[in-house]
Amino acid sequence: MEHTDNKARQAADPYSRIVAEIRKGSIRPGDRLIETELAAKYGVSRTPVREAVHRLEADGLVTHVPRSGLVVRQLDYAEITELYAMRAVLEGTAARFAARSVSEVEMAELATINEEMRDADQIGAAYEANAQFHRVVLNAARNRFLIRAVEAVQKTLLILGRSTLAEDTRFEKAVAEHEAILQALRARDEDGAERLMRDHIEAALQVRLRQYRREVTE
């Protein structure tokens, strides 16, 4: 059993590392994923890399392109808009449900996370705090099917690369938006929590679309 668990962890490692590189922008949309190169880069055999690539393909993060092989997917303007629209619906619903069932412990955790995000001196730390804030809200919704749907959307978001928090004043605004959401949760304001979360996602979309337009023109 221990041998099987170790093998599973080793097979999963390249997947996690590729996902992390996509998220950081080290591997970008349109980049080819070549098994031999990835195996050499990560110091593993081709088998776990092949399994990792198959998982990425199942997740919709990579696709087959004629004469190029497997490449990281590129989302166009319409797909980005559609993706964020779905995110707004799902996470808005999560905030509504959370307003009904969030515990005092979870509200305290959300406040702490947002303070850590406000005090973060690196974008990586801010990104992790932001992701954790959204995870706690989602878990507080107490709906396993909603959690699965949000996680599927979040995987696709990885293709977009670097966080919108790195843009202009988005970081400071996101912290303030989180605080407003937290206040709505404390007040058990279901309508307010959903509206504020949707507004929060819409604000992130506008920054993301500016990123996209800039990258297209470069």
TrEMBL record:
One of its GO terms (molecular function) is DNA-binding transcription factor activity. PROSITE patterns: HTH_GNTR. Keywords: DNA-binding, Transcription, Transcription regulation. Pfam families: FCD (PF07729), GntR (PF00392). InterPro entries: AsnC-type_HTH_dom, GntR_C, TF_FadR/GntR_C, Tscrpt_reg_HTH_GntR, WH-like_DNA-bd_sf, WH_DNA-bd_sf. Gene3D superfamilies: GntR ligand-binding domain-like, Winged helix-like DNA-binding domain superfamily/Winged helix DNA-binding domain. Signal peptide: none annotated. PANTHER family: TRANSCRIPTIONAL REGULATOR, GNTR FAMILY, TRANSCRIPTIONAL REGULATORY PROTEIN. This is GntR family transcriptional regulator. It comes from Mameliella alba.
